[in-house]
Automatic annotation (TrEMBL):
Residues 1-10 have a biased composition (Polar residues). InterPro entries: Exonuc_VII_S, Exonuc_VII_ssu_sf. This is Exodeoxyribonuclease 7 small subunit. One of its GO terms (molecular function) is exodeoxyribonuclease VII activity. It comes from the Bacteria. Pfam families: Exonuc_VII_S. Heterooligomer composed of large and small subunits. It comes from Limnobacter parvus. Its main location: cytoplasm. It catalyses: Exonucleolytic cleavage in either 5'- to 3'- or 3'- to 5'-direction to yield nucleoside 5'-phosphates. Residues 11-22 have a biased composition (Low complexity).
Amino acid sequence: MSPSKSKATQSVASSEASQAVPVSFEEAVAELEALVNVMDSQNMGLDQLLTDYKRGAYLVKYCRDRLSQVRKEVTEIEQTLNKPVDEGDQ
């Protein structure tokens, strides 16, 4: 395989990895923590750092979006609970 093809293959693979959706919020946080630890503790090449940074940015966005969604659902539940019960509904 020529060097340009291997770089293109690596680019596609890293792009797909940065878009892999976590199974849960907790998994995303754990992966993000692991990425930070690896990036802090190892002397990595620039391309790998960029790939890991992109994945980290994706995970941060995923976590923020998930938290926003949960806050919205909690607000909706609270609004439902705070509505007065109609006499006819009992």
